[in-house]
């Protein structure tokens, strides 16, 4: 078994995998990596299953020390990673020698980096997943939903000799310079005509009030004209509009039901891009139908098979 010791961490550094499924009827949310694309590429670099446990590092402030020689992989945001002071770019696997320190400092591009180990990091499964959901006290290194803390040990048992990188043409673009796709649905037709125009013809600013539950979008207030709603199930990426008219995109740690009207839901690819955006980023929304979103998702997943 190989080990890393955590020398520094923050409450935003968590053990994640693909998340929990089939348990929302119990009131248990999904959890899992906010940027599933980067998690999958980090695992792919080592020949792992794409959904094995990784470390999600948000905004930096994370440092580990190798207890043995090891081969790890890094994908996602550029958080100023350094090995004993030497810069380390993401989207590649790399060697970390015994006693060397891997440090993540601050965001240079994107918000979340993903660190993978051969065979995935070791952690107990709770309801079929090791994903950390702090609010529900589920997952993580000990199964109790705690963030990664200084002094803790990260262990893994897999082995690999793969030293490779994701080719530039296959790396996700972490700059948000194209609209986010929104699958139309739910209560879309219950908003005023002006609001429907504003949704897709205005820019929205990501509020600082954001976490793994959701991100508030600031812009022109939207007007809902329908009847009061009874709470209903909430899918990943749902865009709710509370009474103040400012949309909220619900993320991995969202509640399982809600009573605010919804415009629809962001596609998985759009959510992965949104997860890499910092507060203050300007975003636009683009309407798509479910068939188009499904086709694009299947085409993207094919990249992992073709590489």
UniProtKB/TrEMBL annotation:
Q: Which InterPro entries match?
A: CT_A_B, Cyclophilin-like_dom_sf, PxpC
* Annotated ranges, domain Carboxyltransferase: 25-304
What domain of life?
Bacteria
Keyword tRNA processing in record: no
Molecular-function annotations in GO: ATP binding; hydrolase activity
Sorted alphabetically, the keyword list is: ATP-binding, Hydrolase, Nucleotide-binding
- Give any Pfam family that matches: CT_A_B
NCBIfam families reported in the protein's UniProt record: urea_amlyse_rel (TIGR00724)
**Protein name listed in UniProt:** Biotin-dependent carboxyltransferase family protein
